[in-house]
Amino acid sequence: MTSPKVDKGQEEPQAAAADGTSAEGYQRALGARQIQMIAIGGAIGTGLFLGAGKAIAKAGPSLILAYAIAGLVIFFIMRALGELLMYRPVSGSFSEYAREFIGPFAGFVTGWTYWLFWVVTGITEVTAAAQYMTFWFDIPQWVSALIFTIILYGVNLISVKLFGELEFWFSMVKVTAIVGMILICAGILTLGFSDAGDSASVTHLWADGGFFPHGITGTLMTLQIVMFAFLAVELVGVTAGESKDPKSVLPKAINTVPWRIAVFYVGALVMILSVVPWTEFQPGISPFVAAFQKMGLGLGAGIVNFVVLTAALSSCNSGMYSTGRMLRDLALNGQGPKVFTRLTRSGTPLVGTTVSAALMLVGVWINYQWPGDAFAYVVSFATISGMWAWIMILVSQIRYRRLADRGVLAQSGFRAPGAPYTSIFSLAFIGMVIVMMGIDKDARISLYCAPLWALILGVSYLVLKARNPGNKAFAGR
Fold it and tell me: What are phi and psi of 223, to 5 degrees?
């Protein structure tokens, strides 16, 4: 590979274009309404709708506390990202900031790891979608997974404006469904209708074995699933290069994180676990679908299953969007094949998206080989690769703040509150999650894969550096 020389308008990624495009050549077509809903919908996906079933079985009602504490950490991470985005809003932001504040190798690892995260997440989401289809049809999971992957690839061959519009409505469906479910549960608790009306009570949160039925250890062991549920909240950082007004829109989107978590995670679980005892939920079955079945609202269960199917496909669609952008960022910096720099007339990184979608077809094979365990396998690996981006965001923010406070760099207009202490706390929390993953035999597989991935990246980096000795992408800080 050689350092890429791209067409006019792309040769200098940091130079702003005068025709409404971003510095990287993308179309700034995502408006405030779309960015807000992408930010809201990004955190509502498989981790909540499907993964929560396994987490409830492990932790019981204490899962609510796990989501609340982890949600606070996510807010600290997002504010750290927001500070960096207001300092310099760019597409492929995670690898860009790691490259600038930590070093070229960190940027290389972050870009490729975040790309891998979304490929694996795409497999996860299409796996979940295939599982949801079995609610209505008795068809093999791999067949559904193949069909969905092909359809979503086709959807991603559109302009970013249409992508944003589709994601807006996908997110609107998810948000409306969760709010509706909360209101229905509230009605059951207060008015007592449905099959669950006579037994529904907030006492289920502590009466069926206690708030910590499996002890604190049981709660800690769910942190991997909890953190996976929050993966993708950082997607707003990838949209920075295609937002019409990033310095106005992105801070507003980031500041919605606390109430998003309070309503969609904490609020939804409080309601579900009050209406239906936690002991009646099973791993591998969406707690939202199961709750409506327990209430005797069969039609409602079908509707919710459609909503969670939409959520999974939406997340996979977002994954295809981000993978193409991340590969192009790497290529523009000489850390990826030159072919990934190419854009369509509508500003879509077609080659990167195509390669990523092709790799997502691995999910079809996984569903064919292990239909019962596919979700658990890919969740653990997606979690560890996704958390790497969070680690790089936090370390980059700490180093940026140090330089900004010394006057070396301009201060951001959206400073992270409590930093660097909140960033250090968040790093420690992520470290604890990784330790718990090592203890959990089901999640341990990801820690086995991580060293292999690190070795592949290390060798690739050295080869690229040797082939491109004058490339600034491989020069020291």
Answer: -60, -35
> Residue 288 corresponds to which tokens in the numbers above?
């939202």
* Helix, strand, or coil (residue 276): coil
Residue with structure tokens 């890429």? 4
Phi, psi torsion values for 420, nearest 5 degrees: -85, 0
**pLDDT over 90 for what percent of the chain?**
22
What per-residue confidence (pLDDT) applies to 245? 74
Tokens, residue 218: 């049981």
How far apart are the C-alpha atoms of 247 and 416, rounded to whole Å? 15
Structure tokens at 287: 């707690």
Unique residue bearing structure tokens 């549920």:
229
DSSP character string of 196-242: TTTT--TTHHHHSS-SSTTHHHHHHTTHHHHHHHHTTTTHHHHGGGG
* Burial class for 368, CB neighbours closer than 10 Å (0-12, 13-18, 19+): middle
Secondary structure element (H or E) that encloses residue 42, with its range = helix 32-42
The one-letter amino acid code at 244 reads: K
Q: What is the average pLDDT across 385-401?
A: 93
Select the more confidently predicted residue: 14 or 395. 395
- Local structure of residue 1 (DSSP, 8 states): -
Buried b (16+ CB within 10 A) or exposed e, 331-356: bbbbbbebebbbbeeebbbbbbbebb
CB 297, CB 181: distance < 8 Å: no
Can you spell out the DSSP letters for 86-143?
Answer: HH---TTHHHHHHHHHT-HHHHHHHHHHHHHHHHHHHHHHHHHHHHHHTTT----HHH
SS3 44: coil
Question: Between vectors from CA 390 to CA 17 and to CA 323, what angle results, nearest 5°?
Answer: 50
CA distances from 132 to 50, 57, 179, 225, 278 (A): 9, 19, 21, 19, 21
Q: How far apart are alpha carbons 51 and 383 in whole angstroms?
A: 12
Main-chain dihedrals φ then ψ at residue 34, nearest 5 degrees: -70, -45
Q: Model confidence over 156-174: pLDDT tens digits? A: 777 677 777 778 888 888 8
**pTM for the model:** 0.85
User: pLDDT by residue (tens digit) across 72-124?
Assistant: 999 999 999 999 989 988 766 788 899 899 999 999 999 899 888 888 878 77
Beta strands, E only, 15-144:
none
Nearest Cα to 294, choosing from 312, 279, 309, 311? Answer: 279
Q: Which of 247, 355, 345 is nearest to 25 (CA)?
A: 345
List CB contacts of 28: < 8 A, sequence separation 6 or more: 20, 21, 22, 241, 242, 243, 244
pLDDT at 6: 36
Q: Across the chain, which distance is largest between two alpha carbons, in Å? A: 74
On the 0-12 / 13-18 / 19+ scale of CB atoms within 10 A, 321 is buried
Closest residue by Cα to residue 148 from 23, 16, 380, 309: 309
